[in-house]
# Entry
Amino acid sequence: MSSNTQANPEYQLGEKESTNYINASKGLMSWLFTIDHKRIGLMYLFTIMGTFALGGFLALAVRLELFTPGQTIMGPDAYNRVFTLHGLVMVFLFIIPGIPAALGNFVMPLMLGAKDVAFPKLNLASFHIYVIGTVMALYTTLDGGVDTGWTFYTPYSSTIDSQVVMMTMSAFVLGFSSIFTGLNFVVTIHKMRAPGMTWDRLPLFVWALYATAIIQVMATPVLGITLLLLAMERVMGIGIFDPALGGDPVLFQHFFWFYSHPAVYIMILPGMGVMSELITTFSRKRIFGYRAIALSSIAIAVISFLVWGHHMFVSGQSAYAGMVFSFLTFLVAIPSGIKIINWSTTLYKGAISLDAPMVWALSFLILFTIGGLTGIFLGALGTDIHLHDTYFVVAHFHYVMMGGTAMAFFGGMHYWWPKMFGKMYNEFAARLAAWTVFVGFNVTFFPQFIMGSRGMPRRYYDYLPESGYQIFHQISTVGSWILLLGMLIMAVNLFSSLKNGKEASSNPWEARSLEWLTQSPPIEHNFHEIPTVVEGPYEFPIATATATPQGAESSDP
Amino acid sequence: MESTTQTGSFWMPPQASTTAAEVDSLFDFIMDLNYIFFAIIFAMTVYFVVKYQKTDENPIATSDLSHNTVWEGLWTFIPLVLCLIVFVWGFRVFLNNTVAPDNAMEINVTAQKWSWSFKYDDGQTTSDLYAPAGQPVKLILKSKDVLHSFYVPDFRIKSDVVPGRYTTVWFEAMKPGDHRIFCTEYCGRQHSGMYRTVHVLSAEDFAKKKSDGFEGRPEGQDPAVWGKQLYSKYGCNACHGLEEGEVKVGPSFYGIYGRKGETADGQSYVANEEYIRESIMEPMAKIVKGYAPAMPSFKDQIGGDQMDAIIAFMKTLK
Ligand code: HEM
Ligand SMILES: [Cu+2]
Ligand SMILES: [Cu+2]
# Structure
């Protein structure tokens, strides 16, 4: 078994032990105050499933309201709160922590061959802070909510009568959680690699988490300060962003996007990392262009700090600034494009099976390609003027964030589920869910491209019946019900597997990175002894080469 | 309103300004790139997935291809070149679309929650925009409160309207017709209700209507009926209902004329002509008890005739 992975084949798994990290200790407290990265990852995972469900129901409400012009199920004030909360929940509570803090926390140390992250207590603190931030956001919602959009643009946000201060403070707190996770991961990846785990033997998921962590640590403080300034403006009336107090509203946009554009890559890079794992494992094939993929993650992380102004082409910033930002935006597009082609090329001459995680991965490949390509319209100044703040943008970012990151999240979840819980889910239901979501997603979001380029603005409670947008809204709303169906199938399937699922072996997918070396679910300290790594993570056996047993060379580090 | 229904291409609304066609050619070019690249990725993926299925004959991969410098060079270089073309093209279209010709006619635009007002060189103001065909028009935009954004899809123009600074856009409409104006920067409750119309007139009609007053009371119309139209044109409807006791942002207009009330600082008042005029021109002077001081001033927008008509309309509400 164990010799299938990148570790030294002498590493012996031994008998499967009956104690594992899940049943090693009992009681609520043993979970809430655990410092085991696997337990923390799991708590993150369940919390994030909850926030995703919440964000999803809000999205369904938004879609339902737009089914007919005028009032369908709620008034404009409620609508504005609902779409704002949807955006906030999806961005700050689901997608930013989603892959790194839930999946990454669980598998990254295993992948490195480590017993835990570098700072287990900081890891726990990060989770606690995340929960506090989430509770603050939910409390704010019950206490009146905010209607500013997740972007909090001033001076609307600094003057409007809603709970902006509390909500920005919640985002401020959540920022710390993100920074702590990032910091922890950077140090862990530098310091905790098993012997022989050189940088060029790191699984690409780890590379992606590394690039993400750098952005988290560097960009999040900027958001924190910006939101703090906004809160100070509201509470103490110091004029920073509100022109009525001598401030500058466009300055807020610069600050905000200085974080939020890099944050877009906090959202997508981990998804790209998951993709590299899924594509290789299910085509049983070495990744094409390991170096290009690893380094392009870093390139993306660096350049992503320099393109924030592409959100502001019509904000009144100078034409010169617009030109520079447009140019840099095209530069950052190239590495993402390379990754897509590399994943596709990896399939070439593989031995491909369409297990559920792979279906999610292929969805990602198709949907993210559409998301990326439609970004070209928005990076080009001439066309962005027309498309900015229309449904075209809404469609674009859902193709990237949901079609990209969320698909990778679900794919990763199905991939590592057997490792996390030691149970297999029903494969047929899992594939069905993935295909249903794929269809529902396109039905929901593709029509939004069309109505958007035809001029339908975003954040609109209402539209005129004679404007011709209604049919697109209706298709989109119906799509959201298909999406719901797919999600329900997935949820029922995964949860019932915990009770009824077949036992999972240590390496059900015959993957090669180290998390598959230990038993499923892993023992408390991950490995009995630290494995030594003898080769790269994607060196799958091939039919044409003379068969040398893997890791036959000397195994000492 | 005909021309604001969708009769453009599959993707785009009608082209009604001189720069729209340029924007659309760039759009079409990028769309072609989208189709081509999507087709390549899609075809490759589907082909590989079908062809290299794991089967008993094909249990493991048959290649461990890890890179290919020529191919990788090509698929970095070609997209890069295409991206640079799109970038340069996009920038040129942008400049044409944002730098107004010198001979442009200037119109001042003020945005506020949740209406627009347009002020012409002779001092008159309107709530819809009137513009001559075949003549460049430059709009100088400012906001009284929060961010708004001025967007005319048929003209392919958009610019944020920022409090505390001026921004500009320009267009040259090709022929007479009506086109929709949207607000595309989120501005609160009635953001989606902040749509108005650009009426493009022939040069002669424009000149004639301008000297008659663009939005004067139509010949023979009852001032109260006109007042009701102004009520929605100036966006009073966003904050004031007409039903008895209806509370939006502000109090209902039902029975307002002659109503006795109290201000936030405890003075009592009777809503006569003078009070109503003051409420509209200087809304901060007296705040009705129980309401926020949220009403913008309409001082530069509502002229004497219009004020009379609004009051006449209010008198009918009982
Ligand atoms: C991974 C999942 C998702 C993420 C990260 C996400 C994120 C966002 C964000 C950031 C916004 C902008 C909110 C704002 O403008 O303040 C938004 C808007 C919107 N989302 Fe989602 N979303 C997700 C899933 C969905 C789903 C499943 C649906 C539909 C069923 C949906 C429907 C919408 C709609 C209709 C809007 C536009 C509201 C408006 O502008 O009026 N989203 N989403
Ligand atoms: Cu960006
Ligand atoms: Cu608006």
